[in-house]
Amino acid sequence: MLNRLPFDEVLRSTVGIPKGTQLLDSSPRSRVWRVRLADRSLVIVKQITDGGDTGADADTRFAREVAGLRLAGRATGPAVAPAVLATDLPARVMVLEHLDDLGNTDDWMPGYAESLARLHALTGSADAGALPAWSGPTAADAESFLALARSLDVPVPFAVPDELAALLDRLDPTSHHALLHGDPCPGNDLRATDGVRFVDFERASLGNGLVELAYFRIGFPTCWCAMSVTDAPLAEVEGIYRTTWRGLTGRDVPGDLADACAGWLIQGDALVERAHRGTADQLARVPTEDFEWGHISARERLVHRLGVVADMTGDHDHLHAVGRLSSALAARLLERWSTLRPLPAHDTRPWY
Question: Which has the closest alpha carbon to 185: 154, 230, 152, 216?
Fold first, then answer.
């Protein structure tokens, strides 16, 4: 009964009569079906479940996803997300356009970058309050990062605490209103004939698009399938993103990509899957245990992120000391645990 299709009479009168259903794989926080209607068309039915949350939290996730999808529905030209066809608020059910995913392609990143920029450019200051503001690193994250260095006996340059405090100020999302997906990971992007569509907007927010453009450099920090992107493809996709954004908005992307990457570095919760975020100081675990998420360990993710920030901040006006600390921390981790592997290359991306 738990997996019975939640399709009441209102949805039937609005969308059509279900004639066949297939339960699809999804997270514990939702149930998803592919449904064939009486007219033989297909739709997706998604129900947000408690998944360990309180009912109020599940209600919030439902409202957030529907709001994010409806904002994404503003796109002109190729869509960037499935259309919302109907909703059943009490049951936390949404009926969505069915998308035919073309599947595997080696050259997946350019289309992803273009659609990500198009998604981000759909909202502006007039949309303030339509979604929660992006939730970035906090003072507690900065202190955990400093504590990690101390626990590994890595000297902290004098300027680092002040640089981190200033970083948190610069990452404040208040003045930014780009439509952020919240989890733009492989598997949440579907390839259609006219571009990439993003799905699963449960963490949608408003903020600076650079925090999601940073995924290419920092190793896809909210994804189990962390990966590394090499220099030439990286330059291409970042160029596509910036050009697309400029063409749509008439201005350059605001902010500093190095800041966005440093923000991901100091967030311990970006080392674990969503269910474990907010449950412990994850950076404090690193010196004593190397916990895995997917096929990649926390120390491997961390070494990659440290290297990225060190490379980006060698001559940075505001993060120079953070960059030196990052380089020293990466060296110490590799010295202590010499078997740590580099992240897989982007061309080994898993396909769902």
Answer: 216
Q: Is 33 helix (H, G, I), strand (E, B) or coil?
A: strand
Whether the pTM exceeds 0.90: the reply is yes
Is residue 232 within 8 Å of 348, Cβ to Cβ? no
200: left (phi over 0), alpha (psi -120 to 50) or beta: left
Q: Phi/psi at 325 (nearest 5 deg)?
A: -65, -40
Cα–Cα distance, 113 to 222 (Å, whole number) = 17
Take residue 102 and report the two structure tokens written for it: 């073309």
The DSSP-derived string for 256-295 is: -HHHHHHHHHT-GGGGS-GGGTTSS-HHHHTTT---EETT
Q: Residue 345 carries which DSSP code?
A: B
Q: How many residues are present in the chain?
A: 352
Taking only the tens place, the pLDDT of each residue in 251-307 is: 999 999 999 999 999 999 999 888 788 788 999 999 999 999 888 999 999 999 999
DSSP code at position 128: T
CA dihedral 280, 284, 286, 292 (to 10 degrees): 10
* Cβ-contact 332, 218 below 8 angstroms: no
